[in-house]
Write a structure and sequence with these properties.
By secondary structure, the protein is mainly beta. It has four helices and 62 strands. The chain folds into seven domains: 37 residues, no CATH class; 157 residues, Sandwich (Jelly Rolls), CATH 2.60.120; 54 residues, no CATH class; 54 residues, no CATH class; 98 residues, Tumor Necrosis Factor Receptor, subunit A, domain 2 (Ribbon); 68 residues, Tumor Necrosis Factor Receptor, subunit A, domain 2; 137 residues, Roll (Mannose-Binding Protein A, Chain A). This is Proprotein convertase subtilisin/kexin type 5-like.
């Protein structure tokens, strides 16, 4: 609810209703925008002044003393005092201080004055002049008089205060209690704030001799300041009140205010009971002659003299006739005499044969009759009759009437209906309805199908199949040469070049194998590469020619074979052929060429050598490969032989580093004029220190060109480590021997590269 501080009204706004309806869905719509309550601020004293008997504030810090005693039966006693407080000031009287039920006290507040008996309020005075100042620094003179009349059996309480500019105190509250309270003690108390009291005195002189009566307490003939109340009040709770609802008791009759059955709280005083009411037996309370069963706002009761024609009398309570009764009150006829349908003057509902019913059942329609009332007929197919009344509703599209015709049921998924249908129909093949309550069916989209009626969904065409149009009842296989890789295809794709599909319904294409190809899309098979061509990997879109020097003799080759040695071929060859490598003659210097298989040899003339006779040795030198060799004609030691080779065409001593060269040198010596002579070769260990001469290993021997010894042909047991540091080749043999380098009877062999 939304509160308006200016008016105090609580209103249910639109946002209030939405928030409340979310928590309480059954909240009726009419609540929105309504003013539902009104708040009014009252102080505690204002609230208590409207209650017949209520507990209010209780005094604190009450201290009793034998010094504070009084006897109000002898002409009355008045207590005068001066006090100040921000809050309440209490003047407390008691018969027995320890028993609260004997207390009588006056509450002096900034809001007004209240009188309590036995801890319950009996009267109040709320005029501004009667209240305290509400300040801890401003003092005010007060008095409270108590008179107990033992002959009359009453106790009279008077309260007042003395204005600053007057001598006589003013009475603001006077109340008479119909019993002698036997008060003997008095004390002061406080509320939330402390009370400062001074100048306390007791005056035995009756109050009427020295007081001035104020508002609400006019002086009577006996000199008292008594309450002024409404003329029907026998005493009022608020001094000076003119309201008949503020009475402590009534002089004649009382009526509940508001009148709520069983509530003995608030009432108003009247001279006579109002219309439709009468005094209750042996009491002065007014009660209803007859009352309506329905209560008003807050439970208030409506009184009547006679029950309306639409009600019947049930022990002076007017109760509404059954809704099964026809309302004939307009004819001046009472609708019913009791609560049952048999008590109706005219039945509201009848069977088709005229029998009386309590009402049409759900699934039936109430049909109005000329003579009044209704006949109950079965609700039409395709309609619903929910409450058994005159309302017959057509079932909307997407629903059908229940067998009892009490409701419209949604069509299940896979079904549909038009308005007013008794039954739902299955969706035909090729269509579906995914949700319940469908009024139409939807055609399956392309790429999907439904083969049977009553489908709530469509099936996806599997891979390898397709449906080209909406509303399909089946899928077609992709033709050979095409495929659909995923389900839900509306068309098939051609196999790409290099691939094929031989059968219908393919979900993928096969790759052409090595040696095959397909040049265009949509192929149903692959072709073999023709002879002379090849495809090395799969998925080929064309074949390649075999390169020159290779060939493929058969179709479907995944590679080409190299031509054998001495054979060759052109590009795209299916076979190889031999060719003459001596044409033109590759040999130089009149060398003679001999053709071989993929090779040729040159026979060199004279001193020429090399693969093509392109190199020449000096005259009288023998050639071996690209090297030239010459036998020296004189003898001498190793160093002399070295020097003579250096002087002869700047050559070195011969270095047979391999077996072929070693054999060539041995044969050259054998065919010379000195076949038995000994010859130095260019191998020594002259680098070795004298301390290492005993080492017979050959890892220190080096050739004349300073390359280390690799292949060797030492005679068994050689070198023998006897200070023989130079090598010779043995005659008639091709093995080696170590020899002292100073031996002089040896010839030598020189070596140089051909040029």
């Amino acid at each position: 609810m939304t509160y308006d501080e200016e008016t105090g009204v609580f209103t249910v706004t639109e946002s209030d209703f939405e928030a409340s309806n979310a928590r309480v869905p059954a909240l009726p719509d009419w609540v929105e925008g309504r003013q539902v309550a009104r708040a009014e601020y009252h102080s505690l004293l204002q609230h208590l002044s409207r209650q017949s008997s209520a507990t209010g504030d209780v005094p604190c810090n009450v201290k009793w003393s034998n010094a504070h005693r009084l006897d109000p039966t002898i002409g009355g006693k008045c207590i005068h005092f001066t006090a100040a407080s921000e809050g309440d000031i209490f003047v407390v009287f008691a018969g027995i201080p320890q028993k609260h039920e004997t207390w009588l006290y006056v509450q002096i507040s900034p809001e007004g004055v209240a009188l309590y008996k036995s801890m319950r309020v009996v009267t109040t005075q709320l005029l501004d002049g009667a209240s305290s100042l509400g300040s801890s620094n401003l003092y005010q003179s007060y008095f409270v008089c108590v008179t107990e009349d033992t002959i009359g059996g009453v106790t009279i309480i008077q309260y007042g205060k003395t204005p600053d500019n007057e001598e006589l105190p003013h009475v603001w509250l006077e109340f008479e209690i119909d019993e002698v309270l036997s008060l003997q003690y008095y004390a002061f108390g406080s509320g939330m704030y402390p009370v400062k009291v001074m100048g306390v005195s007791i005056i035995d002189q009756p109050a009427q001799y020295f007081i001035v009566c104020r508002e609400g307490t006019p002086r009577k003939d006996n000199g008292r300041c008594s309450q002024q109340c409404h003329e029907e009040c026998d005493g009022c709770r608020t001094t000076g009140s003119d309201s008949p609802t503020d009475c402590i008791a009534c002089k004649h009759y009382s009526v509940g205010f508001p009148y709520i059955e069983g509530d003995s709280g608030s009432f108003t005083c009247v001279a006579t009971c109002p219309e439709h009411m009468e005094p209750a037996t042996e009491t002065s309370k007014c009660t209803c002659i007859k009352q309506m069963e329905e209560s008003g706002d807050g439970g208030t009761v409506t009184c009547v003299t006679e029950c309306p024609l639409t009600h019947y009398d049930d022990g002076n309570v007017c109760k509404v006739c059954s809704t099964l009764c026809e309302d004939v009150s307009g004819r001046g006829t009472r609708v019913c005499t009791g609560p049952n349908s048999g008590d109706c003057s005219v039945c509201r509902y009848t069977t088709s044969d005229g029998g009386c019913l309590e009402g049409c059942s759900p699934g039936q329609k109430a049909v109005a009759q000329d003579e009044g009332g209704f006949r109950c007929d079965q609700c039409q197919p395709g309609h619903k009759c929910v409450r058994g009344d005159e309302m017959e509703e057509i079932c909307p599209a997407g629903t059908h009437s229940s067998p009892e015709r009490t409701s419209c049921l949604e069509c299940a998924a896979g079904q549909f209906s038009s308005p007013g249908s008794q039954y739902c129909q299955d969706c035909p093949a090729g269509k579906y309805s995914a949700n319940s309550g469908a009024s139409t069916c939807t055609a399956c989209p392309s790429g999907q199908y439904s083969s049977s009626s009553g489908s709530s969904s469509c099936q996806v065409c599997p891979a390898g199949q397709y449906s080209a149009s909406a509303g399909s009842t089946s899928c077609q296989d992709c033709p050979a040469g095409q495929f659909s890789a995923m389900g839900g295809a509306s068309s098939c794709d051609d196999c790409p070049a290099g691939q094929y599909s031989a059968d219908a319904g393919s979900s993928s294409c096969q790759v052409c194998q090595p040696g095959q190809y397909s040049a265009s899309t949509g192929s149903t098979s692959c072709q073999d590469c023709p002879a002379g061509q090849f495809s090395r990997v799969g998925a080929a879109t064309r074949c390649n020619d075999c390169p020159a020097g290779q060939y493929s003799a058969d179709a479907g080759s995944s590679g080409c074979e190299a031509c054998a040695e001495g054979y060759t071929s052109e590009e795209g060859a299916t076979e190889c052929y031999d060719w003459d490598q001596c044409s033109p003659n590759p040999c130089e210097n009149n060398g003679v060429c001999t053709d071989g298989v993929d090779s040729f040899t040159c026979a060199c003339q004279g001193q020429y050598t090399g693969d093509r006779c392109q190199l020449a040795c000096p005259a009288a030198w023998a050639s071996h490969g690209t090297e030239c060799f010459h036998l020296g004609e004189s003898s001498g030691d190793y160093l002399r032989a070295r020097g003579r080779c250096a002087a002869t065409h700047n050559s070195l001593l011969a270095m047979p580093k391999d077996e072929a060269t070693n054999t060539f040198i041995a044969n050259l010596i054998s065919s010379s004029q000195r076949p038995g002579g000994r010859y130095w070769i260019g191998l020594n260990d002259l680098q070795r220190d004298s301390a290492e001469w005993e080492d017979t290993s050959d890892d220190r021997w080096t050739w004349e060109d300073n390359t280390p010894l690799g292949w060797n042909n030492w005679k068994p047991g050689e070198p023998n480590g006897e200070h023989e540091r130079c090598a010779m080749i043995i005659p008639y043999r091709d093995d080696w021997n170590d020899l002292v380098c100073t031996a002089t009877n040896l010839y030598y062999v020189c070596q140089k590269s051909a040029e």
